[in-house]
Amino acid sequence: MADFQTPAEYFQNRGTRPLKHFGQHFLAQPATALKIVESAQIEADDAVVEIGPGLGALTRFIIGKGESFHLVEVDRAMVEYLTQRTSAENTTIYRQDALSFDFQSISSTLKKRLVVLGNLPYNISSPLLFRLLEDFPAIDRAVFMVQKEVGIRFAASAGSKDYGVLSVLLGVYSRVAKLFVVGPGQFHPPPRVDSMVLRIDFFKRAPEGPGFEFLRKLVSKAFQQRRKTLANSLCGVFGLSSEVLQKAFEAAGIDPKRRAETLSPHEFLVLARLISQAI
Asked: What is the DSSP letter of 206?
């Protein structure tokens, strides 16, 4: 396997720059990259997917771990670079947008849940988390570096100003842990904000309820206008009358005058279950 270059070496040798439209900020600190990979606790029989490997900051520490390794990279130049440096038979490189990657298909083919890692471009962090939640049965755990304020939202608890739709959905389907913060100076080029590394452990079984899309629609509707009470924000959702919705609130033991940000993920799940039964 050829040596991986530092970001500064790579761009200097080619006379090019990171692409702004891909949101490219390359981790340049090997010790931090190793810490991220170690946080995933990759086992010998794991199937690992790395999102946006770029110049291989994490890749160099993942190669040789796990049973199979899947790299998902959208930048053609990075794919060519990685191809020259990852010749192992158990490694596959996909040139595509991570948001269109079929995690479920890989999991089904390999008959195991996946370990997903990545230094995520800030513009795809939330869409990718929604995608992983949709493919919940295929994902075992994930370790991501994201923009710090985004990481805080992902891990937020009910009642905080950062609590929102993804906080709820992640709370229903997984356990999120904030690991450590990474400063701008560890990247090339430096971003304007701090980053945060998270570990997300997805539960082994989906909770009893109406399913992800139903829950997502309900929670999204509840948070659409945060200052509204639940009774007002959910009025008409799924075509329900106010009377039927009121009965669901009563059965769930939830005051309809509460706002969405005060409900725990479990309370949202219970409410979604009762509403789905009333349809």
From this structure: P
How high is the pLDDT of residue 258? 97
Answer with the one of 202, 234, 253 that is the final residue of a domain.
Answer: 202
Q: Per the domain annotation, does 1 fall within a domain? A: no
Q: What 3-state class would DSSP assign to 216?
A: helix
Structure tokens at 119: 């230094």
1 confidence band (pLDDT: 50, 70, 90): very low
pLDDT digits (tens, 9 = 90+) for 63-86: 989 999 999 999 999 999 999 988
Distances, alpha carbon 33 to alpha carbons 6, 55, 60, 135, in Å? 12, 12, 9, 26
End-to-end CA distance of the chain: 58
Quick one: how far is CA 238 from the chain centroid? 27
DSSP 19: -
Same-domain pairing of 183 and 252: no
Same domain for 217 and 196, yes or no, is no
46-65 residue pLDDT tens: 999 999 999 999 999 999 89
Nearest-CA neighbor of 121 among 21, 12, 17?
Answer: 21
Q: Could you tell me how far CA 16 lies from the centroid of its own chain?
A: 30
Higher pLDDT, 271 or 239: 271
Count of domains for the chain: 2
CATH of the domain at 77: 3.40.50.150
Residue 166: other Cβ atoms inside 10 A: 22
Nearest CA to 222 among 207, 232, 212?
232
196: tokens are 């945060």
Q: State both tokens at 257.
A: 């005058």
Contact 239, 217 (CB under 8 A): no
Task: Yes or no: say if 105 and 147 are a contact pair by the CB < 8 Å rule.
Answer: no
Q: Are residues 189 and 227 in the same domain?
A: no
